[in-house]
Cyclic pyranopterin monophosphate synthase (Enemella evansiae), 158 residues
Amino acid sequence: MTDPALTHLDAAGNARMVDVSAKQVTVRTATAAGRVLLSAECVALLRSGDIPKGDALAVARIAGIMGAKKTPELIPLCHPLMVSGVEVGVEIVDEGVELSATVRTNERTGVEMEALTAVSVAGLALVDMVKAVDKRAVISDIRVTAKSGGRSGDWRRD
């Protein structure tokens, strides 16, 4: 259940950034996942390393890391946090590429948005790298899969 005091609206209904100054600093981690669905031809090119634009998976990893770091610039009410670490995973599967991102911080609020943004930006970068080969690429199923730290404790998607 959500704390009713944690709202992004003030008493007049105006948007505001939630004040987290009274919250305890704790180690917090969040993991998100998603996928890019691709044609069999594109998957074969990724596996062989023959994507015309270059190493699409490396670009996706770096873009994901950058996305996590830039999250408060992209999401209007997101707190700027000192991100301690970001790991972006890319795994080629028969249907395309499975993406994951784990973000860590030692702060007063969580890094779920940073993990989601990392996966989203990694997916966008991957699509950009393969669009000449597969114009039908689809980014899908972006979701938080786990979080830890903070007052609400640990959570894992079943």
Remarks:
- Strands lie at 26-37, 83-93, 96-107, 138-148, 155-156.
- The chain has one domain: 26-146.
- The radius of gyration is 18 Å.
